[in-house]
Amino acid sequence: MPSRPSAWEQPCSPGFLRQLAGGDKTAIGATLTERERETLNLLASARTAEQIAAELTVTIHTVRNHIRSILTKLHASSQLEAVIIAAGAELIDILA
Questions:
Q1: CA 72 to chain centre
Q2: Where are the domains of the chain?
Q3: Do the Cβ atoms of 13 and 77 come closer than 8 Å?
Q4: Which of 29, 30, 51, 55 has the fewest CB atoms found within 10 Å of its own CB?
């Protein structure tokens, strides 16, 4: 049985490649709401959706909606990709 490729071997979305190519940093995050930015910061610190919901005092459904919206707005195909895009655009500080 062939092994599944690791996260590093997965193909990148075109949106992700555009972001890496140096898109306008202010435009990348301009459409994110404050709550989406908070969610993105918590994702970057390896929190689960359940932990994010508890910390933001919202339902898990709300967190999943925020994550879906973040992925759409950043043209990301995964949460990891969204965090990388956001870090590259200096929307979040992954070293904090």
A1: 10
A2: 35-96
A3: yes
A4: 30
